[in-house]
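pasting for ref
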Amino acid sequence: MDHGGTGSPVVDGFSLVQGGPIYRFQVAIHMAMPDRPGVLRRALLLILAAWLPLLLLSLAQGLAFGTKVQVPFFYDYAVNIRFLVALPLLIVAEAVIDPHVSHAVKYFVRSRLVGAAEVPLFEEQLRAVARVRDAFWPTLLLIAAAILPSFWMRKLNVGHLLSSWHATGTATGSGVSLAGWWYVFVSLPIFRLLLFRWLWLIVIWAILLRRLSKLPLRCIASNPDGAGGLGFLTEVQPLFGFVAFAASAAVAGAFANAVAYGGQSVVGLKFQMITFCVLMVVILALPLLAVTPKLIRIKKKGTFDYGTLGTAYASSFQQKWIEGQPPNQELLGSSDIQSLADLRSSFGIVEEMKIVLIDKRVLVGLT
């Protein structure tokens, strides 16, 4: 997605996902490339690492299909959807979201929201956010959060008192199968790491918006976009719904197992489904609140400025057309009354300016 450069290597080179220890590791082993084919290749390789061994090991122990266990590998909705749908979507999301984030960063400069004199400050903020993105300790915490839960997993059966491909034919799941071990200590940590990394990237995006909103941006309350010139951010945020879709696919697979094998019903799971959807929309919309303090200041200033201008112009209009001697020209059709109408229209735009960018379009897009 190329929308032209700004002349600043720092601005033009900013990326939300191309950085950090995890990305550098993928580059080192030739898994990551900054183009779309590289993303698709990486998605395929991770499917081969997370899903294919589960299939082969289940086949080797006779747990892939048949009646040896109540839930063979091929009939486990959760695991197949998680690694064949959700996992590659988390990778492909990079090719969908990152170009739009980069374009939004460039737009601050190209739209002159950041003036030429403020570009160095803008670059400084981008470098600061890049350092947060590239920091080692957050990545270490993400890896720990992805791996440590596996050491507390004691029960691998899919449903209550059901035997599955996770285990070697026991109803309690105490005899973990070869595929079960791979699932717990390789496949699940890979999926968790990708999901947690996206949550961290969303936090970084919020940090970036907050830092940029503190700059002396040339925002105008009467901007036709109704958001002081920052309305373009609402075009970016709904794209993070791609991450929510991946997470939703994994959760849907778990619900499918609960219905098919756990005795649950769709109606009985309604509350959990609604709660999950609302939670995901809230999490993905929250970064836009980072610019709300800026929008409040812009609207207050615009209201004051246009109020002052309106008072001065209305006073002049009153003196000329109402209190003074009737002029020789007609009021209707004069530039004075047209200017008064234009001023009222501009003041209306300021009054209606949004201070929260989470509007109906963003919520619908994420949902």
